Amino acid sequence: MCSDLSEIFHYVQPTLDDFILYDKNKPIPAFEQNDAAAVASLPTENVAKTSILNELSNLQDMVSPSNVLYPGDKIPHYAISSTYKKGEYLDVSIGEIYDLSKFWIYDTFGELKPLMNDLQIFFHNQHNKYLIPELLLEEGLYCTCLYAGEFHRAVLFVDYGTVGNVQSNKIWYLPKQFAKVPCQAIRASLSNIYPAYENQPWNIAALNRFQELITNTPLVAEIVRIIKEDNILEVYLADINNEDNIFYINDVLVKEGHALYID
Questions:
Q1: Which of 90, 110, 207, 257 is most solvent-facing, going by the fewest CB within 10 Å?
Q2: pLDDT reading at 110 higher than 80
Q3: How far is CA 14 from CA 21, 28, 52, 73, 200, in A?
């Protein structure tokens, strides 16, 4: 309303909820002129937004625990082209699965298990201290959420590739000590196969069979190709549960009619 009556008075907005009004026909007091100039330099629609952002920043400083991630802070990602090599073999576990050309793997014996153990211990007794006020939630903020009863780095669950809905009143700050380990989920695709039906996506039968084949069994991924620009590994996935009968899941899916070889 104040900004709509500029022909009647000058105004200065020192805080989010306060406006000081001055007669348009009289000069603004000297001590307010700098503030007025700053306000005048902003587009009218941005004045309130700027004040709100300032207030939120002040609120965050007052209520947030120290040494946590704020908006703009990052968790590093593996640059797979410099971390892995074509022909390398990795002990892997499977995280989220969208289809046979888009799923996430992580190093079975890597840093994820110790990280998850430390997260559970840390948040078990002091999670209330790190709860984020809903007013301070912001897109892109790395935080902590519960998934299947365990605390995870989130909201995109960066260590498993999972995307899920979470309640806004159950999101916690992520302490910086848990941001040192790179995001563990690595996007992968089964190499040299495509859906059995040309120009069709992977069907539910193929997806279900893939899930059956990778569940509760040790797996090794042979890196066939590294797609650098998308940070994706194309792999042959081997079931090594029985050393006398090691087989590639890619081949089983073709043999059972769920997929075809590319060449």
A1: 257
A2: yes
A3: 11, 14, 12, 30, 60
